[in-house]
Structures are given as C-alpha cells and as structure tokens.
C-alpha cells in the first residue's frame, strides 16, 4: 500500500513529504537502522525545545482494512538516563488540523529496533503519517528511520 526506503530521493525529502524545521532530511550515506542507505535522519544541533515533525503526503487508504505500519529505527541518545524528549508516530486525517499520537517512546539510551504500529483505526481513510521529536534537542544526537511499510494484514 505504501513503502518508503528513501532510495529514490533526489532532494532533502521524498516528493510530497514536508517538515516543520530543517532538522529532518535524508542522509544518503548512512545505514544505522540496519537497512541500506539512504535513510531519514533527525539531527540535534543547538539546544532547541519544541516539536519537530516530518510527514508523508496524504496516503489513500479508503479501500484498505487492517492497516499496520512497520519501520526500522535507530536512536543515538546523547544524555543517558535523563528522559527529556519523546519520539512518536502521529497521524493526521484529511480535513483535520490536529495530529494524533499512535506510538511513542521516551528513550534513556540508544535504541535499535523494528517498530510495528496498529493503524487499523485509520482503515478506509486518507491520512498523513508523521515522525516527531518532542522536547529538548540537547538530549539526542540523531534519530534514523528507514524501510517504512504501511500494509494490510
């Protein structure tokens, strides 16, 4: 239904994707998630606080059911045990302004994992998927994401 491995990206993000800041981009040389390069990357920079989001264009799941999102990610945590930020997957339905959190973590160390998120509640809808960092960028080095698959199960 929807897949993105960032291999055909010729700009900062895939066509149709958007970001609310310049901390998100595609890194053409990295493969920290265990897949093949390139991959999506969030970078720290100076210490800012807020919500930093990157999102797909609208995905048409109007004819789909039993949706599941799967992606690989690697969190390069900076500070250790201090839980001062949140990483999340959010959904925005077409025609709505708000983002709904469907998965989140508050890392306290590096994380290398494959995440599976039940998105069945959005079957039959059109929506965007976003990955968001929330909190102080001081506490993270990088967040890498790759091999995104939205499928019917």
Features:
single chain, 153 residues, mainly beta, Jelly Rolls, six-stranded antiparallel β-sheet, 0% helix, globular
Task: Please explain how this structure is put together.
- With 153 residues, the chain is mainly β.
- It has a single domain, classed as Sandwich (Jelly Rolls).
- Helix content is 0%, strand content 53%.
- The chain contains no helices and twelve strands.
- Strands 1, 3, 4, 7, 10 and 12 form a six-stranded antiparallel beta sheet that branches.
- The mean pLDDT is 94.
Question: How would you summarize the topology of this molecule?
Answer:
Blueprint: E1 2-4, E2 18-19, E3 24-27, E4 39-43, E5 49-55, E6 59-60, E7 67-77, E8 85-93, E9 100-105, E10 111-118, E11 126-136, E12 140-152
Antiparallel strand pairs: 1-12, 2-5, 3-4, 4-12, 5-11, 6-11, 7-10, 7-12, 8-9, 8-11
Tell me the fraction of residues in β-strands, as a range: over 45%
The residue fraction in helices comes out at under 10%
Instruction: Report the uncertain regions.
Output: none
Helix/strand order: EEEEEEEEEEEE
CATH class: Mainly Beta
Largest sheet: 6 strands, antiparallel
Class by helix and strand content?
A: mainly beta
Gyration radius over CA: 15 Å
CATH architecture: Sandwich
The outline comes out as: globular
């Amino acid at each position: 239904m929807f897949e993105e491995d960032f291999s055909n990206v010729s700009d900062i993000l895939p066509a149709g994707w958007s970001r609310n800041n310049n901390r998100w981009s595609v890194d053409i040389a990295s493969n920290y998630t265990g897949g093949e390069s390139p991959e999506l990357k969030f970078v720290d920079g100076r210490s800012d606080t807020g919500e930093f989001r990157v999102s797909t264009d609208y995905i048409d799941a109007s004819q789909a059911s039993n949706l599941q999102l799967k992606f690989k990610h690697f969190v390069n945590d900076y500070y250790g045990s201090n839980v001062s930020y949140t990483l999340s997957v959010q959904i925005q339905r077409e025609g709505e302004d708000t983002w709904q959190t469907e998965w989140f973590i508050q890392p306290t160390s590096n994380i290398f994992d494959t995440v599976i998120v039940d998105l069945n509640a959005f079957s039959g809808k059109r929506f965007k998927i976003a990955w968001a960092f929330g909190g102080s960028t001081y506490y993270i080095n990088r967040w890498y994401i790759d091999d995104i698959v939205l499928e019917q199960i």
